[in-house]
């Protein structure tokens, strides 16, 4: 059984405004961004922020990741919508996992075509009138009608929109309650704290609702920051971290189900030109840490929890 102290996740990744939407089509020649959503969409009557706290929403990204949200980067924003990015380049987060902010039922999973500018959209009904929207997804990994758990992957960050609307990759996120657009868009609350509008960098506590006390940083140690992750269904998440001081990569798989019970879990790291290092067995909380010097080299990484596994290509060359 792995029992180690928990380190506070405190790293922050800066938002590249080039990586988020800016202005709406029509706002100026050649200026692009999030379009105005379909105002005919309806939801139950509005409620106040105090009720939203009770829904226990988490950041729509895997546990331990830091993302910068911006509610003012697009002139198309009508209320409290947020565009999320991480990384220092426009496409740094293209393909990164997007997860459910809370448990619920998928009521929309479709490309919106010319209807609006959402592109690939997933909408989740959380009950009590609350719903969340996840727009511009590169890939949708859930279908309408399915039940999803908090922290379950529902797609990946993308830049899909309506024909002719070219935007940089980002996640457009909304929380709605009510039928009168845009007043039905509510302030986002993550882990019981209202988002710090207009711009804030937030670290995800979306760990699938589990009580796993471990984070990627607490497993890998001081100086390591998360650079990538992959959801393993609802069973766990595998993380790739890097230490800029010593040039080492670290991989760990953090369990999100069967917490405290020894189940098959693994994590591996392969630096290009070197042998693969694997930690595999029956673990109560996590597999790893697996560390190797990777400065200036490409790495393969992955892991398994439950019936789900992830295997990356050689990537993240030099970091």
Describe the structure.
Residues 1-29 form the signal peptide. The strands form five sheets. Strands 1, 2, 4, 5, 6, 8, 10, 11 and 14 form a nine-stranded antiparallel β-sheet that branches. The two termini are 30 Å apart. Residues 1-54 have low confidence and may be disordered. By secondary structure, the chain is mainly beta. The chain is globular, with a radius of gyration of 19 Å. The protein folds into two domains: 17-203, Glucose Permease (Domain IIA); 216-311, Immunoglobulin-like (Sandwich). The chain has helices at residues 49-53, 216-220, and strands spanning 66-70, 82-85, 97-99, 104-111, 120-127, 130-137, 139-140, 147-148, 153-156, 171-176, 185-186, 189-190, 193-194, 199-203, 224-232, 236-243, 248-255, 263-271, 277-283, 286-293, 299-305, 308-311.
